[in-house]
Amino acid sequence: MSRLRIAEIFGPTIQGEGALIGEPTVFVRTGGCDYRCSWCDSLHAVDPAHRHLWQAMTTDAVWAEITRLSRGRPLTVSLSGGNPAIQDFTALIALGQAQGYRFACETQGSIAKPWFAQLDTLVLSPKPPSSGESVDWPAFDACLSAAKGAAQIVMKIVIFDETDYAWARAATDRYPALPLYLQPGNPEVDPATPVNPQDLSDRLLWLVDKTMADGWFAPRILPQLHVLLWGNKRGV
Amino acid sequence: MSRLRIAEIFGPTIQGEGALIGEPTVFVRTGGCDYRCSWCDSLHAVDPAHRHLWQAMTTDAVWAEITRLSRGRPLTVSLSGGNPAIQDFTALIALGQAQGYRFACETQGSIAKPWFAQLDTLVLSPKPPSSGESVDWPAFDACLSAAKGAAQIVMKIVIFDETDYAWARAATDRYPALPLYLQPGNPEVDPATPVNPQDLSDRLLWLVDKTMADGWFAPRILPQLHVLLWGNKRGV
């Protein structure tokens, strides 16, 4: 049986961002990523330097940990990373949904997987120019096609600056039917460095003011609530 | 033509709480309320002492102000108060929806109105014991019946303490099909007094910890984001 490479499993806690903000969630963070965003806040699940900390787990072992943390009470499981689309979650999702659990997945949209169609929520987060990555739009569209059947598909874009903002407006014009979430970037991602709540608020206010002034009312605009609450602490 | 009593119309800004958190919104805050919650954060729209500041506006005048603020670009209009269910929004909702606007309404659920069925989102916020009010459940159920046809109906409960929490668990057991949002209370509602962000964070963390520890995964738990961002400032 193939193994899943898992950086951490934690929760339950509330989802801190995007479409499911506030939702009680157990997070399954996979190890490994095909991107290396300049401002990545999860390098411990991305940089192969941390690979020795990623566990090779069977689907059954991952499921056992989810049920232990949630005490067998159904909730939302978020597959994140890293890029969880590198791996095969077909069996885990089927196992959990049979018990009433719901599954969300957060991925940049660079790799399409058939199990996207099983999801309750697929969050596609194409990365803006500030990331240093560039989006492969045919691959992104393949993710959308693969996800047909998923209960909910949304788009989330992190905005650091004017360039990201202009890019997001143009990029999302092509997907008017996808609910869109904008999120101000967090430039301070070192777990050892305290975040500056005022700076995070100021970034959100800048984004709200700019979007409202432009009369761009399509996106919902949300902070990373967990960073406001817990800073960059892991496991919450 | 009957007039609407309006305390303020402002926006667009993002919705700060509940099911539509982050959503670009114009707020229509009505004057007048059948409740007097001990911790009311909108007394300027509730206390008849402020009645001279409420404008008697025609539906057309309210609609003109909404389109002016939104520059004719469709967004969500939130009917709040006070208790907006005292008044008749049938015509305003029809007018706006014909132009692609969406309508949400936030009410305690004490007065049912036929126009609830026209809404895109009805937020029913029964008041917990700390409010000093008590819920008339048959009236609440009448609101639910009136709202049949609304695109989305959700429940939101403010939690100040253990008593409110226990009350919320019992009250919501009767409505398993209604999406539920819990929100920590804000004890400091004087616009002239700065809020304490640490206190607000602590209240949210207390509520998250308690709910997770109890394995109560039904509610989503969200702060009043606008209070975190802007304090008790009005018009944002």
From TrEMBL, chains A, B:
[4Fe-4S] cluster binds at residues 33, 37, 40. Its cofactor is Mg(2+); S-adenosyl-L-methionine; [4Fe-4S] cluster. GO terms for biological process: tRNA queuosine(34) biosynthetic process. The keyword Lyase applies. Mg(2+) binds at residue 42. One of its GO terms (molecular function) is S-adenosyl-L-methionine binding. It comes from the Bacteria. Pathway: Purine metabolism; 7-cyano-7-deazaguanine biosynthesis. Binds 1 S-adenosyl-L-methionine per subunit. Substrate binds at residues 14-16, 29, 80. Keywords: 4Fe-4S, Iron, Iron-sulfur, Lyase, Magnesium, Metal-binding, Queuosine biosynthesis, S-adenosyl-L-methionine. It catalyses: 6-carboxy-5,6,7,8-tetrahydropterin + H(+) = 7-carboxy-7-carbaguanine + NH4(+). S-adenosyl-L-methionine binds at residues 39-41, 82, 125-127. Residues 20-232 form the Radical SAM core domain. InterPro entries: 7-CO-7-deazaguanine_synth-like, Aldolase_TIM, Deazaguanine_synth, rSAM, rSAM_sf. Its EC number is 4.3.99.3. Catalyzes the complex heterocyclic radical-mediated conversion of 6-carboxy-5,6,7,8-tetrahydropterin (CPH4) to 7-carboxy-7-deazaguanine (CDG), a step common to the biosynthetic pathways of all 7-deazapurine-containing compounds. Belongs to the radical SAM superfamily. 7-carboxy-7-deazaguanine synthase family. Homodimer. This is 7-carboxy-7-deazaguanine synthase. It comes from Thioclava dalianensis. The lineage of its organism: Bacteria, Pseudomonadati, Pseudomonadota, Alphaproteobacteria, Rhodobacterales.
